[in-house]
Write a structure and sequence with these properties.
CATH superfamily: Luciferase-like domain
Radius of gyration: 19 Å
Number of helices: 13
InterPro entries: F420-G6PD/mer, F420_G6P_DH-rel, Luciferase-like_dom, Luciferase-like_sf
Strand order of the largest sheet: 1-2-3-4-7-8-9-11
Number of domains: 1
Protein name: LLM class F420-dependent oxidoreductase
Domain Luciferase-like: 8-290
Largest sheet: 8 strands, parallel, barrel
Mean pLDDT: 96
CATH topology: TIM Barrel
Helix content: 40-55%
Shape: globular
CATH architecture: Alpha-Beta Barrel
CATH class: Alpha Beta
Oligomer: single chain
Keywords: Oxidoreductase
Strand content: 15-25%
Order of helices and strands: EHEHEHEHHEEEHEHEHHHHEHEH
GO molecular function: oxidoreductase activity, acting on paired donors, with incorporation or reduction of molecular oxygen
Length: 326
């Protein structure tokens, strides 16, 4: 079991994210994960810096902790050739600590370049498959071209390659994406404790790590924590079918206007009770995930790091599946 910390790139500026990554390393986390967004989910979050620049600064300021995109979309806003180069460079400057988390993307971030965003999920999966083929091709070294249904590559070479290519973890919300993760990825990435996702990944031949984000909000009291999560992270309750489709933060604000504090308390671990954090994390472990990402929506990151070091680290690492039930 490895434990990671989600850097909230939509809620903090780049300098603060670097500082938090250093704190996460000192608190004992195995890795930090960060989304690769153009927009925040809600306007009142107020931030969305360029993830690759922030990761480069984190690599320079840390020594041990792993780095992971959670996740990047290598199909619309970026061409996969750019991501192949970016990931290879980050793997080099981090001495092999980088994991490339990829997914089929959200309209929120991909529509901004004016190329549109595919309406059908199968087309998004086709795009992601081609993107992964291109990335893998370029990581072999040498010049390559590619002529796919959606994507093309013209006589391209990534000159600076690490000794070993980065691990690729593919985000999945259903069986088709889980099979894609097994075929082209080295690991699985998900946001819900669905045992069927891990099972589909493994049945398709996947043998790598399985990453999952655990929703939580730390504060010295439960109400303060829940209110903070309601203000900035209520979008997490909309579900992936909504999260992938809405185009701008104002749409997420409207779509979540009826979310209540009690809804947050039912979904998130809130406040100072370590047992509640274990309770929320346990279903992910039962589902087969072995890389748990603490997604803290609370107002005090430093307080959470202290809490994690004192009360959570050992408990999280000791979690084991409760039988075979979903």
């Amino acid at each position: 079991m490895q434990i990671g910390y989600k850097l909230a790139a939509e809620a903090f500026g780049p300098g603060e994210l670097v500082r938090q990554a250093v704190q996460a390393e000192q608190a004992g986390f195995d890795f930090v994960e960060m989304s690769d967004h153009y927009h925040p989910w809600l306007d009142n979050q107020g931030h969305s810096p360029f993830a690759w620049t922030v990761f480069g600064a984190i690599a320079a300021r840390t020594e041990r902790i792993g780095l992971a995109t959670g996740v990047t979309c290598p199909t619309v806003r970026y061409h996969p050739a750019v991501i192949a180069q970016a990931a290879a460079t980050l793997a080099l400057v981090s001495d092999g600590r980088f994991t490339l988390g990829v997914g089929s993307g959200e309209r929120l971030n991909e529509h901004v370049v004016g190329r549109g965003f595919p309406n059908s999920v199968p087309e998004r999966h086709e795009l992601l498959r081609e993107a992964l083929e291109i990335i893998r091709l370029l990581w072999q070294g040498g010049y390559h071209s590619y002529d796919g249904k959606h994507l093309r590559l013209d006589d391209a070479r990534v000159f600076d390659l690490p000794p070993e290519p980065p691990v690729i973890a593919v985000a999945a919300g259903g069986h088709q994406a889980a099979a894609l993760a097994a075929e082209f990825g080295d690991g699985l990435f998900a946001t819900e404790p669905k045992k069927e996702l891990v099972s589909a990944y493994q049945k398709a031949g996947g043998q790598g790590p399985a990453y999952a984000e655990v929703p939580m909000a730390w504060a010295e009291d439960e109400h303060t924590a829940a209110r903070a999560a309601l203000e900035t992270s209520r979008w997490a309750l909309t579900g992936w079918k909504v999260m992938s489709e809405l185009p701008n933060p104002v749409n997420f604000d409207a779509a979540t206007s009826t979310v209540r504090e009690e809804d947050i308390l039912a979904h998130f671990a809130c406040g100072p009770d370590a047992a509640r954090y274990v309770e929320v994390a346990q279903p992910f472990v039962d589902a087969g995930f072995d890389r748990l990402v603490m997604q803290n929506a609370g107002p005090d990151p430093d307080g959470f790091f202290d809490f994690y070091r004192r009360e959570l680290d050992g408990r999280m690492r000791a979690l084991t599946p409760r039988g075979t039930e979903a």
